[in-house]
Specification:
This protein is mainly alpha-helical and about 140 residues long. The chain is built from five helices and no strands. The longest helix is centred in the N-terminal third of the chain and has 15 residues.
Amino acid sequence: MVCGLINALKLIQPIKDKYPGITYADLFQLASAMAIEEAGGPKIPMKYGRVDVTVAEQCPPEGRLPDAGPRDLAEHLREVFYRMGLDDKEIVALSGAHTLGRARPDRSGWGKPETKYTKDGPGEPGGQSWTVEWLKWL
């Protein structure tokens, strides 16, 4: 499990325990969609059926994503996430979840430990938000 997901896992574990038939992959997708909706964004319809990986060889290599460089950002995101089995809608949901979330240097190697906007949470305090109004859907 990637370090940055451990805290998210702690939040969804009670749901997983109560409903063991749902995969972690579907729970993370559901949590992302709900975060977007709670921030005032659109309701994202859920499609269930994602599978969890069972061995390390099924995971992409650890580490930061490659730099997008001067190429088209949408194509870069597709190149990275298509090989993980995500479609365009799932890439947008994941990107939105990362926008609403925060970067933490101890997890991704990027960002500040905290800023004046993130020092008091909500959720786990700290990290660097991407925008000043990081909990508002724009």
